[in-house]
Amino acid sequence: MRVDLPFDVHLIILSYLDKLDKHQYGLVCKQWYEPAKHAIFRVTSVTVEKKLDAFVDALATSNIGNYISELRLYMGHRTKGWSPSLMEKRKKQFAALIKHTPNLNLLEVGTSNPDKDENTSDRVAFFSGWRDKKEPEAPVEKGVNPFYQVVLESIRNGHWKALHSIDDDLLSENCKEDSEDSEGIEDYLTPYYNAIISAMQERISYVVLDVTTTPELPLMPQCFKSSVKISKDTQFPKVKHLGCYSSEKTTIQTIDDVLELCPAATQVSLSLNEFHKNQGELKKVKPNTLVTNLRVIVFSLTESFLNYMCRKFPNANKLDMIVLEGCTMKSVIEDEDEDDFAFDSDDDFDVGSRYWLEIPTKMIQQLATYVKSMERFLIRIHYVANRVEVFDIFNKTLSPIKLYTRLDGLTIGTEPKKTKSTLQLDPNVTNIKLTATTKAALNQLDELFFDLNNIEPTVLPSANYRQLLTHCKQLKELSFSTFILYDFPKQTLPVTHLTIHDCEVDRKLWKQFSRQMPQLTNMKILFDPNSEGMKERDDNVFKIDMPFTSFSRLEIEYMLVFTRHVLYLKVTRSGTTTYYCQYDEDDEEVEGPSKKLKEITKKEYQGCISNEEFGVVELICQDIKHLRVHCWDVNDGFEFEKEHQFN
């Protein structure tokens, strides 16, 4: 065994190992210990407050801080309720943390613990502070940011010389969608942040700047008004990723002025609330040919903004674009306080209350032409009335590029090296007028997903999906989600993969699927025996009758609702029947994943299937090679998963 491998070779090997294996790697010999420590501690996260003391102590009593190049801290930025003594304690900890991580390159700061459930209202925040049982002290001054105070002072004193990127989610969220945590950001974070990036001006690689304008100074971005001197003459020569956000109005000139600060940027993120029209400014726009990666979030897709984007960034080969217009409800805007309304979840809106955006044909064509030569693009527009027209124009303009399309709202895009075209839609848009372009696109379609995110299955009118399937001559993958299927078009399809997700399927359709999909080899089924359709059955047997199908792989996901967690299987292959049970009654203490799928006799099977405490699946097929059964009970956490290979 060679022990004198080059350091880079060690790192390549370690990149394929998990955390435990990396520790084992470092124990092989002294020469391997050093690169293993680099791999283990290179990226370090501190996610909860109680770990801070131990983390700082570990840094002070060892040299592990020398190996940390990326540090992720998740902390509540607010200092509300902090006493002066707690503030001083925290400052000392921050200073020690900085002192003992001299080789830090990247700092990521978050407001919440990523290990905690996102839906939990009392989000655990790092550095959130605690109240002593002593008589409380007066809270510190509002707006004080102890962490960035210490960071700024330390950088000015020569610490963190290798640091070149600070990603704070209070800032980066402004380059995504509106963040509830961004209130007060101008007073609390921006002055410190601007001072820090100014102190690292010659080496900073990622900055986020406010391009909002005000009526008093309509041509000056907010970031130029900071007490820290950032002006049109400032340069960040090493910045590769520039983020620009506006909370209110912005203009072409203000965006261009900020872009000029970062002449080497190749990635730009724009999050703009209101883009001001000015045809005179548009004519003066100078193309930025260096930017290749573009992320855009705009409230409204206007002709002036589209013209600006296409003219300003002609060499972009990656585009991620979100248009938020259409997420509003007119009644909310007219009658309610705007602070009570948010547009980050489709669940907040009734279909009838949505504002449906109509995109002019000229703009659709312009956008399709702009993305045609890109390596990758993804465009998401929440509610588009003429989404089928968008689908047509994009398919006609970009053919033969393979597109991923969702027509519940509009999502359309491509992925690098993707060899399949995909269409996903819900019943609300299945009854569409098929143009020649639409038919041509369907004829080239590889994957079709009928998807409806309802709690209870909804009837899918056969006429609607029959119209689409008639033109899917090359379809390989077909999926139905949360539907009641009682009919299926009598046509042969070249489908090889079929997914039935939480649907109520008429029993006769299984044999029809088998007959009309002669190339079917892979199928995945998720069903809930407690659904309305299953409860109406006269027995507890779920039967899959597909006698003409030879399965390479069949996956069954089964939501258990029985008193005893028992699932029986009857498998008939070309007339030969075998029986299986997933549960060993003599070994009731063994937990889910270790339970075995064992073969049983016909007599044992017949003696159990009439018991309503048990679940039964019967499969009839021509042949099957591999079966995966996954059962779980949401009420008591029971879970069982078994892979079975047939001879």
UniProtKB/TrEMBL annotation:
InterPro entries in UniProt: F-box-like_dom_sf, F-box_dom, LRR_dom_sf
Protein name as it appears in the record: F-box domain-containing protein
One Pfam family per UniProt: F-box-like
Lineage: superkingdom: Eukaryota
Chain ranges of the F-box domain: 4-37
UniProt-listed Gene3D superfamilies: Ribonuclease Inhibitor
Record organism: Choanephora cucurbitarum
Phylogenetic lineage: Eukaryota, Fungi, Fungi incertae sedis, Mucoromycota, Mucoromycotina
